[in-house]
């Protein structure tokens, strides 16, 4: 008898193989999008829940940082950050300019007669913080903390809007993946 060879790969087998591969890819793509979407929702809820706690800690820590670490040895980064904050937001002190009276830098006498840092001045010149007058320094109601809160809230709205936009794209991706999965399932080969 002669050799008998059977054709093992038919057109139907090849199509079935690629169809199963496509189903598998669509399924895992949907699962991945769904997991990312759930993580984004969890992050958004946690950010909303902990916002008030973050706000309270920010108020407490900003004043503490300004009074205890400003112009202290080893805290040069804090000094430059506070100076930049006060200059960019046109403010002085955490809650008001009188916060600087509690500053270790002012009380130690290393301030050179200043009552506020020079970064509180409307026009910064060396030693301008010696004169505590509204025409000379920023006396903003609420101090730097209210300006910083406003800045954060404005930017959180933008971040939230971008997050919602990305979430919508992901939801449409999941919907289209389901539609593709169903249309592939309905086609008979």
From TrEMBL:
Protein name listed in UniProt: Tetraspanin
Alphabetized UniProt keyword annotations: Cell membrane, Glycoprotein, Lipoprotein, Membrane, Palmitate, Transmembrane, Transmembrane helix, Ubl conjugation
Record's bilayer topology term: Multi-pass membrane protein
Coiled-coil regions, chain positions: none
CDD domains: CD151_like_LEL
Primary localisation category: membrane
SUPFAM superfamilies per UniProt: Tetraspanin
